[in-house]
Write a structure and sequence with these properties.
Blueprint (H helix, E strand, L loop, with lengths): L3 H34 L11 E9 L8 E2 L6 E2 L1 E12 L2 E11 L4 E4 L4 E4 L5 E3 L2 E7 L17 E8 L4 E11 L4 H17 L2 H8 L9 H22 L5 E5 L9 E3 L3 H38 L1
Parallel strand pairs: 7-12, 8-13
Antiparallel strand pairs: 1-6, 1-11, 2-3, 4-5, 4-10, 6-7, 9-10, 11-12, 11-13
Helix pairs in contact: 1-5, 2-4
Length: about 300
C-alpha cells in the first residue's frame, strides 16, 4: 500500500493538472464562441473596442521586411523555439532553451482601409510551421542535420506578405495631434537643436553685445522657432487617422491572430475544449478516487 507522502504527491499532481485542464477547456470554448458570435467589421466603419476583422497582410518594401530568426526567411511576423535534448539515466526530454516572437506591427488591409496589428500577447496561429533538428544551438540551415546530429530541435512559425488574416482584438482609431500641438512640439525641438551650438545662437540673437541672450532676445528666438515650426507642420501635416488593433485592456477578451478562416479556427478551439476537458475530467476523477486512500493513510 502506498504511503501517505506518495499519495499526497499524486493528489497534488492530479489537482494541479485538473485545474489546468478545466482552465484550458473553458478558455477554448469561450474563444470558439467569440469567434462564432462576433460580427465581422470593416476597417473604415469599425466601432471602437473589441471587434473581429478579416483581410490580408499587406506587402512591405524590401527594406522594411522582417527576417525570421532561425531561417532568415522574409516575413511580416515570426516566432521561434529552440529545444535541447537532455538525458539523465532512464529519463530524457526536450528542454526549451530559447524562444521568442517578433514585436513589429503587421500592416493589415481589407477593401476599405488599413490597420496596424500589434501582435504582442496575441494567440497567433499560422499555416507556415517548420520543425527540424541540428547539432548546434542555432541552425546553420533550414534543413535537418544527419541522424546522429539531433541534439537540438528548432521550431519556426511565420506569417508572410499577402496571406489571409483573421484578427479578434481591441480596435482603436488614433487621430494625429492638432496643428497647434505639433507646432509647439516642433518649436521645442528646434530650440533644443539651436542650443547645441550656443555660440552661433549668441552671435545671431545677441543684439546688445553682452555675450549672452537676455529675456527679450529669447523672445525673438522663440518667435523665429515658432515661425519655422509652423511652416514645417503646414508643409508636412498628415490628417490621416491611424487604425490599431492590440491586446484588449479587458483581460477576459482574448487577442487572436490567425491565417485560418473563422470556421476552421473556431473548430480548432472547440477541439481544445474537448481535449483539455478530457484531461481535466480524468484528473478530477483520479483525485477523488485517491482521496479516501490519502485520508486513511493520514489517519494512520
Amino acid at each position: 500500500m502506498s504511503s501517505f507522502s506518495d499519495l499526497i504527491w499524486i493528489e497534488i499532481f492530479l489537482l494541479g493538472f485538473g485545474i489546468f485542464g478545466w482552465f484550458g477547456s473553458f478558455r477554448g470554448l469561450r474563444i470558439a464562441r467569440l469567434i462564432e458570435d462576433t460580427p465581422t467589421s470593416k476597417i473604415r466603419s469599425a466601432p471602437q473596442g473589441y471587434i473581429e476583422i478579416i483581410g490580408r497582410s499587406e506587402s512591405r518594401p524590401q527594406e522594411d521586411m522582417l527576417s525570421a530568426k532561425l531561417t532568415g526567411t522574409p516575413c511580416v511576423w515570426y516566432s521561434f523555439e529552440i529545444e535541447k535534448y537532455t538525458s539523465n539515466g532512464k529519463s530524457s526530454s526536450w528542454k526549451t532553451i530559447e524562444k521568442g516572437a517578433s514585436k513589429e506591427a503587421l500592416l493589415f488591409t481589407d477593401d476599405t482601409g488599413h490597420c496596424f496589428i500589434h501582435p504582442d500577447r496575441a494567440d497567433v496561429s499560422t499555416h507556415t510551421k517548420k520543425i527540424w533538428h541540428g547539432s548546434s544551438r542555432y541552425p546553420s540551415s533550414g534543413k535537418n542535420s544527419g541522424l546522429f546530429s539531433r541534439r537540438y530541435r528548432y521550431t519556426e512559425k511565420r506569417i508572410h506578405c499577402d496571406q489571409p488574416i483573421y484578427a479578434l482584438g481591441h480596435f482603436e482609431t488614433v487621430h494625429p495631434p492638432s496643428t497647434a500641438a505639433q507646432t509647439k512640439a516642433a518649436m521645442n525641438t528646434l530650440i533644443n537643436e539651436w542650443k547645441q551650438d550656443y555660440d552661433a545662437l549668441v552671435a545671431k540673437y545677441d543684439r546688445d553685445d553682452s555675450g549672452d541672450i537676455d529675456l527679450q532676445e529669447w523672445e525673438k528666438v522663440r518667435a523665429d522657432a515658432q515661425s519655422e515650426a509652423a511652416k514645417q507642420v503646414r508643409d508636412d501635416y498628415d490628417h490621416t487617422p491611424v487604425n490599431i488593433m492590440s491586446y484588449s485592456p479587458a483581460r477576459s477578451q482574448p487577442f487572436v491572430i490567425s491565417t485560418s478562416e473563422p470556421k476552421a479556427l473556431s473548430t480548432r478551439y472547440r477541439w481544445h475544449f474537448i481535449g483539455f476537458g478530457i484531461v481535466a475530467l480524468g484528473c478530477t476523477l483520479g483525485f477523488f478516487y485517491f482521496l479516501p486512500m490519502t485520508i486513511n493513510a493520514w489517519r494512520g
